[in-house]
Amino acid sequence: MGSSTESFVRRVRSRLDELSATERQLADFLLEFPGELASYAGNELAELAGVSPSTVSRFIRRIGYENYEEARRHVREEQETGSPLFQASPASSKRGKPVATHFQQSQANLASTFERLSDAVMGEICKAIVNAPQVLIFGSRSSHAFAVYLRWQIIQVLPRVTALPGPGETVAEYLSGLGERDCVIVFGTRRQTSQMDKVLSAASKAGARLLYISDQTSADYAGATWSLQCECRGPGVLDNHVAVMALCDLISSMVIEGSGSAGRKRLAAVEQAHDELGDFD
Question: Which of 18, 101, 127, 188 is 20 to 30 A from 259, comparing alpha carbons?
Fold first, then answer.
């Protein structure tokens, strides 16, 4: 077997760009339910994922295992760690108790996401955001809501924070002036537009500090300064983004606290302006 420190999920994620269409279909299934590999024979897994047994065999070799049994043993070892990721199954969405099922999935996603975070790394990220001359936050489609929310929170203490693209805008207007001290935050949860690749490429080329936030089914971005993965498995057809919002809240809280006296002065000025303008009833 390959490196014993490389998890099964990491093996799959690191090779997503190399997979054929049917292999990617199997990969997507296993990233949602990796524990299923330990529970079924290869032909049974193929039927569950809607691919052929030969696809399963090719996929297992492509991600670095000699055979299916070796991969199966590795997944069983990871199951013993108690990770919620390895406890989920397709049947969990069919139990007839949607409230409890969604609550349990949200809890599992939060636990799996936050157990991978460290105070040291989050401190580095938030210090870079606070000290950046400008902060650009990108997300397309549903991820645009995360970008707007995060910007809405931290602009209270940092004056130059932009969520892009804005209505009717392209990203070029913002990317052309990027510098090394600038910070770019990209939400790369699945089903992004082609604009995301342009933002990632421009940030890397400029040498900007890049925070890449993705989900368990998306490939890593090698050029990221920091790469964080959120568990977004949902019990139904939709992804569950509770962990993404919780991560936004964590970043916002740490940035506000880390902004120090300058941030507090800006926050006070913003609140005074609210009063003077009568913004709230």
Answer: 188
Burial 202-216 (b: 16+ CB within 10 A, else e): bbbebebbbbbbbbb
Domains and CATH numbers, the chain: 8-89 (1.10.10.10), 116-277 (3.40.50.10490)
Q: Return the percentage of the chain with pLDDT > 90, whole number.
A: 55
**Angle made by CA atoms 210, 212, 217, in degrees to the nearest 5:** 160
Asked if 229 and 247 count as a contact pair (C-beta separation under 8 A), the reply is: no
Looking at residue 266, the DSSP 8-state letter turns out to be H
Predicted local confidence at residue 3, as pLDDT: 46
Tokens representing residue 65 in the block: 């295992």
Q: Is the dihedral of CA 251, 208, 196, 108 positive or negative?
A: negative
- What pTM was estimated for this model as a whole? 0.70
Q: Tell me: the pLDDT tens digits for 38-57?
A: 888 999 999 989 999 999 99
Using DSSP, state whether 241 is helix, strand or coil: coil
